[in-house]
Design brief:
By secondary structure, the chain is mainly alpha-helical. It is built from 19 helices and no strands. It has two domains: 256 residues, Rhopdopsin 7-helix transmembrane proteins (Up-down Bundle), CATH 1.20.1070; 126 residues, no CATH class. This is DUF6545 domain-containing protein.
Length: 408
């Protein structure tokens, strides 16, 4: 008997397109593909690539339209079933291989354990794939079923065993992978982006367990004379789509997060140098070079080079006595030693630029020490963003040392 109203009617609408996770998985594969091709010998990257590729194939070939097309092209009713089951089994194996290689490497003994675990996973799941095709060849499944094959043939000899086999190996892979990832998340010293990626992965694998639970429940209901096929045709596919999307996000997050963080840091460092670059424009005698299509890293390097070139021109004309007085003034105003040093250099640069000082080189003049000046341009530019602080230090530094001592 099939219920047609109440919560069942609501749940029957919970169908998520197979193409949504396919697009997310495809995007994840596109993001990782350059690294995979460049570092093909890395087993972890190969495992990531295999997982994403297999996941994409599962959702392409498990879509109802593709199932009907496969059956029609091959000319065998329900031939898409063992093919999709094989892809799901291979995907389950790739989950285990990903975690094995992700946590492997390092010491020689660990690499050896990783190789043994890889051989074990590949051999067991390859055997399962062979068994799936053998069972399908022995089964009698003449009526084509596009969306509810698992429940329609739940009691058919050999097909019943095939359905249970792929569900069992899928569930076992989910349980083992989720357990390993959850244990890993709780370890200390993980990178923040990696931890978030693992969290998304764990949610994905737990959601995949809902896929298996819905399938098993619908099949057992058929065995006992009940009709819960909506679990198989609506809830299970939706759980699989959500789980696959979470897995794809979990794979993307560590890579994309680190990439975006580094890009943001580069852009922030370049913007932080803007006050110093603007101040030194009269010294450089030209505008800072800018190329619209240049990468952020190149723009940062060009701005740093522009600033250092200008500082080298200005360095022989800086008032060292003013720098010492400005440093003492900054400390007296409560600045930390590092900030006081940056303030002193900034005050000296501002004074030299504003006064247009061009002191001729003396015969016995010593070469200026530009180590701090050229190395700490970010710190110097940072304090230039606080003109009130610069003004206060300059005002205090302008007072002769004897006057400050008498006043204090």
């Amino acid at each position: 008997m099939r219920l047609a109203d109440g919560p069942v009617e609501f749940l029957s609408g919970l169908y998520i397109s197979f193409w949504l996770p396919g697009l997310v998985l495809g995007a994840a594969l596109a993001i990782k593909l350059p690294s995979i091709v460049k570092l093909w010998r890395d087993p972890l990257l190969r495992a990531v690539g295999g997982l994403l590729l297999l996941a994409c194939m599962v959702f392409v070939f498990a879509a109802p339209g593709t199932i009907a097309w496969t059956n029609r092209v091959i000319g065998v009713p329900n031939i898409a079933a063992p093919w999709v089951y094989s892809l799901i089994t291979a995907l389950s194996a790739s989950w285990l291989l990903l975690v094995v290689h992700w946590r492997g490497g390092g010491h020689t003994d660990r690499r050896e354990r990783t190789r043994r675990a890889t051989r074990w996973v590949v051999s067991v799941y390859a055997t399962v794939v062979v068994a799936l095709w053998v069972l399908f060849a022995l089964a009698d499944v003449p009526v084509e079923q596009i969306e509810d094959l698992d429940t329609y043939y739940a009691s058919t000899p050999f097909m019943r065993e095939e359905i249970l086999l792929y569900l069992v190996v899928h569930t076992v892979a989910c349980l083992i992978t989720a357990r390993l990832i959850w244990t890993w998340i709780r370890t200390d010293g993980l990178d923040g982006w990696l931890r978030w990626g693992l969290r998304f992965l764990s949610v994905g694998y737990v959601t995949n367990l809902l896929f298996s639970a819905a399938k098993f429940t619908a099949i057992v209901a058929r065995w006992t004379g009940h009709d819960l096929d909506w679990l198989n045709t609506n809830v299970a596919p939706s759980a699989a789509c959500i789980g696959a999307t979470m897995v794809a996000v979990g794979v993307i997050v560590p890579h994309a997060g680190q990439y975006l963080q580094e890009r943001l840091l580069v852009r922030r460092r370049r913007r932080g140098l803007k006050p110093l670059a603007r101040l030194l424009r009269p010294v450089a005698g030209r505008h800072e070079p800018f190329v619209l299509r240049a990468a952020p890293e190149i723009r940062l390097i060009r701005r740093e080079t522009y600033i250092r070139d200008a500082l080298l021109q200005l360095s022989r004309h800086l008032d060292e006595d003013l720098r010492r007085r400005a440093h003492a003034a900054a400390l007296a105003l409560g600045a930390e030693p590092g900030r006081a040093q940056a303030l002193a250099v900034a005050v000296t640069i501002v004074d030299a630029v504003e006064s247009g000082r061009r002191v001729p080189d003396g015969d016995g003049a010593a070469e200026p020490d530009t180590t701090y000046l050229l190395r700490e341009i970010h710190a110097v530019s940072g304090v230039l963003r606080r003109p009130d602080e610069i003004k206060a230090v300059r005002a205090r530094a302008a007072v002769p040392a004897e006057s400050m001592s008498a006043h204090e």
